[in-house]
Amino acid sequence: MEPIHRPLYELDNSALLDLLPDIPLWVKCPDYDRVDWLNKFVTYMWPYLDKAVCARIRSMTEPIFAEYIGKFQIEAIEFDNLSLGTLPPEIHGLKVCETNENELVMEPAVRWAGNPNIVLVLKLLSFRITLQLVDLQIFAAPRITLKPLVPTLPCFAAVVVSLLEKPEVDFGMTILGGDIMAIPGLYQFVQKTIKKQVASLYHWPQTLEIPILDAATVAVKKPVGILHVKIVRAQKLLKKDILGTSDPYVKLFLTGESLPAKKTTIKKRNLNPEWNEKFKLIVKDPQSQVLHLQVYDWDKVGTHDHLGMQLVPLKTLTPYETTEFNLDLLKHTNIITDPQDKKKRGNIVVELTYAPFREESIKIDGPQDGYGRQESGFDRPSDSELFSGAGLLSVMVQGAEDVEGERHNNPYAVVLFRGETKKTKMIKRTRDPLWNEEFQFMLEEPPLNENIHIDVMSKRTGISFRSKEFLGYVDINLTDVVHNGRINQKYHLINSKNGVIHVEIRWTTV
């Protein structure tokens, strides 16, 4: 007999309610996407996922079972069979969430009506008790976050999983051939207990973090402090000019940095120059970085003559203590390669102070044994500490969207603050550039009630009289950055139709 087909609009409310639970989430909610391809992928991979997950279950439960051996006359607890069956879970929809952070957030809706073969054997005195799990059904709405995104395959360092809602779990359990779930009140008790235990472990904001890449291979070193350098004086420098004198100046930089070296002023015709000039250098790794000091003789024409150099490892400094160094200048640091060069090159006097930044306000405990739950705690400094003293203003220009020029679209960003100008690289032929470039400004005091100005420009790649084009700008007040330590937002560009720029700004104090 042929089934009767009727359109949906002819069905009554009760018939529609019976149908609704079977309608996939991507049909009922436009935020979710249909992922038939992903379900097909899981289906092909399921035999291998089954073995991998079961191996993980065995390794995780072994220490748990071991705690009960010897108690309550229990001799052994072991799996007689452990298989997730042949039916894979099905993803009824997937939502990808957009955030301003350096991460990818996905929220799948997972349903699994499986046929697992899970048999647990409990050896108690001379008895052998067998427990079997049957008719397993699970509905869960996890949040899966890949973070941070890094330029090393597979391009994310960890997978963080949490549950948005308590999972729905339904199953039966047989023991000695009988269904123990038929005992009055036991089924509801077991269901409630499972939900409570799972929720206490992984219900958001609690998370399960699974590391993928070694932190050492993907770590992006961030500034951890400021090195205060005072170039005091030099004495008995070499004579390089025809008149028996020199025009010395000093270049200084830290290893591991691509920033241009800083320079003192030039002291004309002076072999014993006095500078007393102060500089600040950003420190990222005080245990490995080294301060390079190089003294040159300035020449109006040609290359500048090298008078001498010295190195100061930052690990020799005590934080917050000013140390004076009187260093003999060397031709180079590798004396073994040139043992005949024993010419006196004079000496240089410098004062160094390393000032570490205060610890970040958000402290996250890392995972243990490869897996772990993490929670956030806050340890904020007082207002008197926050709004006084020197610090580092870091401006990360992430990217822009819908920026459009009249003649060309080769956008770049220009950051202006306190007379300093910084530029990102130019991205050719795009309206949605991704720069991901960071600029830093060392300040003597917090930038309260100050603005930072960012222009988005486009530049023609060829020769033209009108090579540059203005695509929009934004002025960002820094008061919130000082109060909160960080902002990470998207801003609508002024004088742009739909343009948006994504900027992250941090204020770190010493």
Automatic annotation (TrEMBL):
Q: Where is the C2 domain?
A: 204-327, 372-491
What's a single GO BP term from this record? lipid transport
MF terms (GO), sorted A to Z: lipid binding; metal ion binding
* A single cellular component GO annotation: cytoplasm
Location relative to the cell: Membrane
The record's InterPro entries line, in alphabetical order, gives: C2_dom, C2_domain_sf, SMP_LBD, Synaptotagmin_plant, Synaptotagmin_SMP
Q: Which UniProt keywords apply?
A: Calcium, Lipid transport, Lipid-binding, Membrane, Metal-binding, Repeat, Transmembrane, Transmembrane helix, Transport
**Names of the cofactor(s):** Ca(2+)
Q: What membrane topology does this protein have?
A: Single-pass membrane protein
Q: Which SMART domains match?
A: C2
SMP-LTD domain span: 31-213
Q: Which family does it belong to?
A: Belongs to the synaptotagmin family.
Q: What is this protein called?
A: Synaptotagmin-3 isoform X1
The protein's organism comes out as: Theobroma cacao (Cacao)
